[in-house]
Write a structure and sequence with these properties.
- The structure is a single chain.
- The protein has 240 residues and is an alpha/beta fold.
- It has a single domain, classed as Alpha-Beta Complex (Spore Coat Polysaccharide Biosynthesis Protein SpsA, Chain A), CATH 3.90.550.10.
- It is built from eight helices and 13 strands.
- Strands 5-4-1-6-11-8-12 form a seven-stranded mixed sheet.
Amino acid sequence: MKAVILAGGKGTRLAPYTTVLPKPLVPVGDYPILEIIIRQLIHHNFKEVTLMVGYLSELIKAYFIQRPSITNKIKINYIGEETPTGTAGSLAWLEGMDDSFLVMNGDVLTTLDYTDIIKYHRDHNNMLTIAMHKKEVKIDLGVLELNDTNNVIGYLEKPVMNYNVSMGIYIYNPKALEFIKKGEYLDFPTLAMDLVNKGYSVMGYDNNAKWLDIGRIEDFHNATEAFEKHKNLFLPNTDL
């Protein structure tokens, strides 16, 4: 199995950590988040991973040169972009994708079963499968419901809303790459809805996995705390 990790962002919301480090190398506990992800991929028998890199990419390459225990177990390729073309647009440069493959953000800490989501994707013959997480959003205000003339027809005091949100982890049918043009900006939501509108199967994958990202300082601290508490769940024993 093959995977692609989007690891080229500047991570500006995670400053000052990302002033000297690319976000994928920011440590969660004792390990960079990117190493945790790759260890998980090895655990699920992935044999090849492509890193889509940009900001401070030489540091990422230098890090894995010093980690032969990892590179001896999984082939790591690098594709760099001088001008970002989006979370889907960058995939136009991929080659040799002849079977379903995983794409994920390089700042995700999760216990998702990658083997099972790929099986789900294949069983349903999807063009795209999106790992989803149930997110509870609390609004600490009174929310008014109005009609077309601004008459109040409902009043919700501090409601709790529930949403199915993307985990930033996707399974692609390789045919989806035919809809991505080299050098043109394309984000994932636009690609997904374009495929839906063309009649292709795009499904969400429901699961109970733990999921955090490290996009913001608060998220990073929460992820670090969760990792230290549940290290055995996030970091499988891959003898590395």
